[in-house]
Amino acid sequence: MSALVEVAGLHRSFGDTHAVRGIDLTVAAGEIVGLVGPDGAGKTTVIRAIAGLIDPDEGTVRVLGMPPDAPQVREAVGMMPQRYSLYGDLSVQENLDFFRRLFCLDRATAAPRIERLLQITRLGPFVARRADDLSGGMYKKLALAAALLHEPQVLLLDEPTNGVDPVSRRELWALLGDFVAQGMAVLVSTPYMDEAERCHRVGLLHEGRLLAKGSPAALVDGLQHPVWLVQGGQEPAVQDAIDAAPEVIASSPAGGHHRIVVTPDGAAALAARLHALGAALACTRAGFEDLFLVRTAA
Questions:
Q1: What whole-number distance in Å separates Cα of residue 177 and Cα of residue 258?
Q2: Where does the pLDDT of residue 298 fall: very low under 50, low under 70, confident under 90, or very high at 90 and above?
Q3: For a tag on the chain, would you pick the N or C end, based on fewer CB atoms within 10 A?
Q4: How far apart are the two ends of the chain, measured CA to CA in Å?
């Protein structure tokens, strides 16, 4: 697969604050690459640099082999920003018509595209509804349709499912899968670990640095630490014991239990202490969130 987006040594600061440092990534045609990390990790900065909205202090950004501000790149990139970008007092149809003119598309060219986008986003029955009156999921679908109207080769999505209900999240990811199958290159940022597993490749971003990158499955398989569920026992004594345990690298709640990542040789000692509190350890399969917690704790 050919790389449509290439970022090498990207460094960008705002004042005295390092937003991102030494970012290297590529996005090829026909794949989804995820930037995964919490708020403030630098995800938006990377996307804005690729879109040509900010200049890097150091490093290079190339889209289709050209700088982001090249006219050919502007025409080839679609972007869905994290913040609301539509005109709330315009209807669904009026917003799409506005973006049609913004992309210099004539009506004959745009009409079948708009019809198709309305069909696949299921916004057809709501063309007369104002954007401000749409649900969160419908609003995001309209923003996605606007970004896709000029049929870009590269799609940049900054936390597209933030604040969206679970059903709409699944539908948005299904739409992305359809477009990627047609050869589009997609870079998506997300704080949701379950969405990371939907990407072909991911980069774990924390405090402006890429901690790891690769396929989600390969990264999880490379986790050297066992993962356990802590079951039973009396709270808050169990929680206090987990917090104080030197063997515990990371912990998170899991459906009424505690999910913990432990040092390779630490499970036996921890199990003995938890047994005295009426709790037990049950081995479980590592997930992407466990990987992220371990890498950010290092």
A1: 34
A2: low
A3: C
A4: 33
Cβ atoms < 10 Å from Cβ of 82: 15
Tokens of 145: 């349709």
User: Is the CB of residue 41 less than 8 Å from the CB of residue 47?
Assistant: no
Among the CATH numbers 3.30.70.270, 3.40.50.300, 3.90.180.10, 3.30.70.250, which is that of 223-297? 3.30.70.250
Q: Read off the amino acid at residue 188.
A: V
Domain boundaries, the chain: 3-213, 223-297
User: Torsion angle of alpha carbons 99, 186, 47, 34, nearest 10°?
Assistant: 140
The mean pLDDT value for 142-154 works out to 93
Average pLDDT, the chain: 92
Q: According to the model, what pLDDT value does residue 1 have?
A: 61
Q: Are the C-beta atoms of residues 84 and 139 closer than 8 Å to each other?
A: yes
User: Structure pTM?
Assistant: 0.89
